[in-house]
């Protein structure tokens, strides 16, 4: 299977890419920083520059079986200033929109069969000891708002006949 992975140099991305390669899949890492990706990822993995804020060329998705979209600015490591919050939101929403817009521009027979996209348990907000399931409603606050917008962009792929999954990572 040919798999495009965004966020391939991140906490989840690195071991995922190694596991995919070990299972014999062809992996293409889309990244904002190709030099860093080449250092951290196996030589067996193709690396392509990708700007999540720019449009994605649909031609880059031809022949791809699945997309695993993990890219997004880290929520850790620095204060959540107004600018930082904008970067966190835009990195997730713009990247997702770019990918789904490219899928929409493709003919149905050319589209990858699956889009697996990261989301976060921040979707639920701080609900204390409440037991939460996938069917629980979104919570309140910045992260819940980010996750709602993020998943909203990803869900558009399902309307195109692409199997779509949002994985709420904690």
Secondary-structure blueprint:
Layout: E1 2-6, H1 13-22, E2 26-31, H2 34-40, E3 46-49, E4 66-69, H3 82-105, E5 114-120, H4 142-155, E6 163-169
Parallel strand pairs: 1-2, 1-4, 2-3, 4-5, 5-6
Helix pairs in contact: 3-4
| Structural class estimated from helices and strands | alpha/beta
The succession of helices and strands, N to C, reads: EHEHEEHEHE
Look at the structure and give the mean pLDDT.
94
Sheet with the most strands: spatial strand order? 3-2-1-4-5-6
β-sheet strand percentage: 15-25%
Q: Which oligomeric state applies?
A: single chain
**Uncertain spans, ≥5 residues at pLDDT below 50?**
none
Instruction: Count the DSSP helices.
Output: 4
Radius of gyration: 16 Å
Proportion of helical residues:
25-40%
Number of strands: 6
Spatial gap, N to C terminus? 27 Å
Shape type: globular
The description of the largest β-sheet is: 6 strands, parallel
């Amino acid at each position: 299977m040919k798999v495009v992975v965004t966020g391939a140099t991140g906490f989840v991305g690195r071991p995922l890419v190694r596991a995919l390669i070990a299972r014999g899949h062809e992996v293409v890492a889309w990244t904002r920083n190709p030099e860093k990706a080449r250092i951290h990822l196996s030589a067996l993995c193709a690396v392509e520059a990708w700007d999540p804020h720019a449009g994605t060329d649909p031609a880059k998705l031809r022949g791809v079986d699945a997309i695993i979209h993990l890219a997004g600015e880290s929520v850790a490591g620095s204060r959540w200033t107004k600018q930082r919050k904008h970067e966190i939101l835009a990195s997730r929403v713009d990247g997702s929109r770019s990918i789904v817009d490219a899928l929409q521009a493709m003919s149905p027979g050319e589209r990858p069969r699956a889009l697996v996209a990261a989301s976060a348990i921040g979707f639920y907000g701080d609900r204390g000891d409440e037991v939460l399931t996938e069917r629980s409603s979104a919570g309140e606050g910045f992260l819940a708002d980010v996750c709602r917008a993020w998943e909203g962009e990803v869900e558009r792929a399902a309307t195109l006949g692409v199997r779509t999954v949002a994985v709420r990572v904690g």
